[in-house]
């Protein structure tokens, strides 16, 4: 929800491109920056698959399965939410449904086993601690692949990242 990535790009452009440069010089340097950013991104993607995180979780625990399903970044976010779900306040059932309401610093939220109105869930598309608390209250498994949007799945990363889908130029 911030523009930090744009500020970073702007700073990189200012570092490499002079303010009053000619169009030809601007374009040459701009494409150097783009190539550099793509190479950095490819490196991060390669590390995702070539480095194995040391997991302190029990095999077949929800944390273990989320690490197997999601990118490292997304899995760490979900694991933090799994830790927080036990500290959640009272879940008040909404009559006539499997929904619950919980009072948080964001206000009164309506939560179900499949969705939540909280900022974390809206911003990431990953399961939040509110959803995990409802799943636990209902006696359901805390691991549910359907709670995660496609963007964070390892198989989506492999299917869409240029590192796996295109022949990279040798530079």
- The average pLDDT value, as a whole number, equals 85
Distance between the termini: 35 Å
Please give the largest β-sheet.
3 strands, antiparallel
User: Residue share in helices?
Assistant: 40-55%
Compute the number of strand runs. Answer: 3
Helix segment count?
A: 8
User: How much strand?
Assistant: 5-15%
Give the helices and strands as they follow along the chain. Answer: HHHHEEEHHHH
**Low-confidence runs (pLDDT<50, min 5 residues)?**
none
* Alpha-beta classification: mainly alpha
Q: How many independent structural domains?
A: 2
Radius of gyration using CA atoms only: 21 Å
Structure, described:
- This protein is mainly α and 171 residues long.
- It has 2 domains: 4-51, no CATH class; 62-157, no CATH class.
- The chain has helices at residues 4-16, 23-50, 62-69, 72-84, 119-124, 129-137, 154-160, 162-165, and strands at residues 92-93, 100-104, 107-111.
- It has a 3-stranded antiparallel sheet.
- A hairpin with a 6-residue loop joins strand 1 and strand 2 (100-104).
- It is elongated, with a radius of gyration of 21 Å.
- The protein starts with a helix and ends in a 6-residue tail after the last helix.
- 16% of the residues are buried.
- The model has no long low-confidence stretch (mean pLDDT 85).
């Amino acid at each position: 929800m911030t523009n930090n990535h744009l500020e970073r790009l702007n700073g990189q452009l200012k570092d490499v491109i002079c303010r009053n440069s000619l169009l030809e010089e601007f374009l040459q340097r701009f494409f150097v920056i783009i190539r550099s950013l793509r190479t950095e991104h490819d490196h991060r993607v390669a590390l995702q698959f070539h480095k194995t995180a040391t997991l302190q979780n029990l095999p077949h625990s929800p944390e273990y399965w989320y690490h197997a399903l999601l990118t490292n970044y997304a899995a760490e976010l979900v694991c933090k939410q799994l830790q927080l779900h036990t500290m959640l306040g009272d879940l008040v059932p909404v009559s006539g449904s499997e929904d619950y309401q919980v009072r948080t610093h964001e206000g009164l939220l309506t939560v179900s086993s499949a969705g939540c109105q909280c900022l974390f869930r809206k911003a990431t598309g990953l399961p939040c601690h509110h959803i995990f608390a409802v799943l636990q209250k209902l006696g359901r498994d805390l691991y549910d692949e359907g709670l995660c949007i496609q963007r964070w799945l390892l198989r989506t990363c492999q299917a869409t990242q240029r590192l796996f889908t295109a022949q990279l130029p040798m530079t």
